[in-house]
Task: structure prediction
Amino acid sequence: MILNSKWSVFIQHGKSRSEIVAEYDLTPSALDHWITQASQSGSFKTKDNRSPQEQELIALRKELKQLRMENDILKQAALIIGRKSLS
Result:
């Protein structure tokens, strides 16, 4: 059960949930979210806790940015070549 694993983290470090929240100036929900992430993926890093859909969306956005840049380069090249052929 996730709740038991959350509380075991607090017990292992000898601090209560409220002590950790106060010490690090967190909201209880933020602490719960971080503990859930760590228990599911073993990491607190955002990139390690993304869903497959989020990862795909990021990859598609990156690819779109690259393709737009390549398109702009080709447009500029076509303009330069067009000017040279008119001269």
About this structure: Helices lie at 2-13, 17-23, 28-41, 52-86. The chain has a mean pLDDT of 82.
